[in-house]
Amino acid sequence: MKSKTNISFVLFLACTKLLFDCHNNIKCNNNNIVTFSEEKSKNIFINAGTKLRVAYQGVPGAYSEAAAIKAYPNCELFQCERFEDTFKAAGELWGGVDRAVIPIENSVGGSIHRNYDLLVRHHQRLHIVGEIYLSVHHCLVGLPGVRKEDLTCIFSHPQALDQCEMSLQKLGVARLTSTNNTAGAAKIVASERVRENGAIASARAAEIYGLQILAHNFQDASNNITRFLLLSREPATIPSNVTLYYYKTSIVFTLKEGPGVFVEALAVFALRGINLSKIESRPLEKNPLMVVNDSRKHQISNKCFDYFFYIDFEASVAEPQTQYALQHLQEFTKFFRILGCYPMHTTI
Hints:
Blueprint: H1 4-25, E1 53-57, H2 63-71, E2 76-80, H3 83-91, E3 99-106, E4 110-111, H4 113-121, E5 127-135, E6 139-142, E7 153-156, H5 158-163, H6 165-171, E8 175-178, H7 182-192, E9 197-201, H8 203-208, E10 212-215, E11 225-232, E12 247-255, H9 261-270, E13 276-283, E14 289-294, E15 299-305, E16 307-313, H10 320-329, E17 333-343
Parallel strand pairs: 1-2, 1-3, 7-8, 7-9
Antiparallel strand pairs: 3-4, 3-11, 5-11, 6-9, 6-10, 12-16, 12-17, 13-16, 14-15
Helix pairs in contact: 9-10
């Protein structure tokens, strides 16, 4: 005999399928859906000869700089000390910056939580217009003439330190010091001239700051890849003559109260054959706790964390099925925004 749980799940799928069929038979209301015009579609594809000013966090030799150059080969680079400064530079209308390049996740270290928070904070001014993947090869660097066995302190970004955890343990370094970025760590080692100090940084950073590479490919995983987002004040739009399958859309939302509401929210994509490529959650900063009434436990109020949910899915918002899905999704949300629709980056 089937359990009550299995029966409930089957009933849920049947009801959701019925809602799906109803939604597809209703004309989509586009008030909350992003629409596109052919006139603005040039925004997506940037000619290599176009001179853009691109902001990134870090100093010369940073991986974000490499990602910016990979995305916009002929760009003029604009350095920012913090991620917040990068968002602000690209969001200012008269700031002279056209794009921003920010890391969002790494195959070893995971998500860059700070940048997810900043995406929401700046969502009214900035849009995701592209993505780029960068293969990261860390080097252990130090002053000329120093051996790696002589190092007692290593500087680098926290993500880089995590990505080299096992290599650092084998080296037996006594102290690890976090910095804002990997190239900044190399710059510190070069400027302080302390022979016991080393850094984890790129080969380019070692060359720029006159350091010796003590070990190549110092990261624990050989396939160490970072995904970067490209941001612009204008949303990317999709030409009608481009295959829509190779596009990705990023959204953020908060959910209404209720049992199973998260499953129902995700079902709007599954029932339309839309693949989800990323799900991330972050606590709300201003109101982290929400009050939930739970009659089953005879509790008047139960406090739990309230979250922003970030989802990437492999479809364009120009497709009718996507518009139906997003309209359906908003029945379960308190807050909803499209962060961007952009071409998928399929090569490393």
